[in-house]
What does this fold into?
Amino acid sequence: MAIERVHESATVLPSAAEIQRRAADGWRLKALVWEREIGASGKPDIVGEIPYGLQISGDCQHLVENPAEQQVLLLAMDLIVQDQKLSQVADALNARGFRTRDGAKWTPPALFKLLPRLVDAGPAIFISDEWIARHAVT
It folds into this structure.
């Protein structure tokens, strides 16, 4: 008995009706092949920017905290809560040797762009052990 195989390109999964029609004609679905584009590194290209304070995990499957960037978020939040101006926050970050992702010194405009991320990360920062330890009343 000979077997006939047909390979088709597709951009969407076949509908249930299409699968039933093919089954009625004697066809059996045997495989699905998935593909995606990868960068020159051999890893998938990232769509969009990774949120500040996070990085791609070693297995490239999810995001994990970036310890250095988490420290920037924590210090920036701490100083902003103390009602420091963005220029003062930038000076404090630079004095401690922190730099932006591209290696530049912190500036008020760079911190302004970071504010939405601080809003997103704020709840986790405020309940972190480090935040609680820094603000414990003795």
